[in-house]
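This section describes the prediction task in plain terms. A model, or a person checking by hand, is given the sequence of a single protein chain and must write out its three-dimensional structure as a string of tokens. No templates, partner chains or ligands are provided. The sample shown here is typical of the held-out split.
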Amino acid sequence: MRAKRRRLEAGFKAKVGLEALKGIKTVAQIAREYQVHPNQVSQWKGEVSQRLPEVFETGPTVQIQESEKEIERLERKVGQLTMELDWLKKKSRQLGL
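The expected answer:
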């Protein structure tokens, strides 16, 4: 029977990646300490260094913009469904249902 894959939290990955980015310890030392593969530590290190500039960007992030678009879409849908429900109530009263 195969062992289950470990699922690691984003906070843990960021912590390990940041520690590797600092360069105080080697990647091998960090991998041993946290019991992960050295290649994984290197990958997280690269991801942290690549995404670090996003922390200091101004203006709404892409995720906030996408969520706002989704909210607008859902509000339009609620308005449409409310109008349809009102129309159906009116027609059912006219038909005596």
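For orientation: The chain has a mean pLDDT of 90.
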